[in-house]
Write a structure and sequence with these properties.
8 helices; 31% helix; Rossmann fold; alpha/beta; six-stranded mixed beta sheet; four-stranded antiparallel beta sheet
């Protein structure tokens, strides 16, 4: 890949929480402009932690981070990173804090120096693009889980980022809203990494999948995930399916 298009370059990143076992273990990963990457792995395996390290919300105890071609180490280094990379948190309640939807979505543009009128225009545009027109005056904490998820995404897109880090973006969405989200993501002129356990969602939204296991990230090579439809005569019985990675998906989550 062209070095000029290298956006995120992580080298030998290690991290553990206090009194915990190493969660990231000499992890290395490269992410390039144009990439649309899915990230899978076991619950508690460090996927969300990896996103927080990229954004400077957590600090590794060893390793090197380069973003947009520059080393980032201190809080001041990450301020410009957060203006260019949008993070969708796993829990929408960590992202939404204003009384109304419009205020929440307009908050980011206001922080970037937009006028009140400009911020409102940007907020309404993003709400409309996500099928949330008419939500402007809704009370944020009264929204359903799926509605909060989509409003959270609107707050991220309103910042007009160059890159997206999406932590379980389809969690809690019904079938129609998930289909709308797929249409939005595939229509964006943005590079992104998204965490998901939903293989069909990854198939529809990403061009490659990385596997996170034992504190490291592995590429899946040339194998591709795929969707399939089938009927089991004894569908209530537990069973496992072979994934496009050549192993059962549950084996990666063991």
């Amino acid at each position: 890949m062209d070095k000029d298009n290298l956006i995120i370059n992580l080298t030998d990143i290690s991290f553990s929480y206090p009194e915990g076992a190493p969660l990231l273990n000499n992890l290395s990963m490269q992410f390039y402009k144009g990439d649309r990457v899915g990230l899978i792995g076991p619950n508690g395996g460090g996927k969300t932690t990896l996103f927080h390290i990229i954004m400077g919300l957590l600090k590794p105890y060893s390793g090197k981070i380069e973003i947009f071609g520059k080393p980032v180490r201190e809080e001041k280094d990450f301020r410009s990173v957060r203006q260019r990379i949008g993070l969708l948190f796993q829990d929408s309640d960590d992202q939404l804090f204003s009384p109304t939807v419009l205020e929440d979505v307009a908050f980011g543009p206001l922080n970037l120096g937009k006028s009140v009128d400009e911020a409102k225009v940007i907020a309404r545009k993003n709400l409309d693009s996500l099928g949330l027109s008419g939500f402007e005056d809704r009370i944020t904490y009264k929204l359903s889980g799926g509605e909060k998820r989509m409003v959270s995404l609107a707050t991220v897109l309103a910042m007009e980022p160059e890159i997206l880090l999406l932590d379980e973006p389809s969690a809690g969405l019904d079938e129609n809203t998930r289909a709308s989200l797929i249409k939005v993501l595939t229509g964006l002129d943005l590079s992104y990494i998204l965490i998901s356990h939903e293989m069909e969602f990854l198939d529809s939204t990403t061009t490659s999948v990385y596997i996170m296991k034992d504190g490291k990230v592995f590429m899946n090579g040339d194998r591709q995930i795929h969707r399939h439809y089938h009927i089991h005569p004894h569908s209530a019985l537990p069973h496992r399916h072979e994934s496009g990675f050549g192993k059962k998906y549950t084996d990666f989550l063991a």
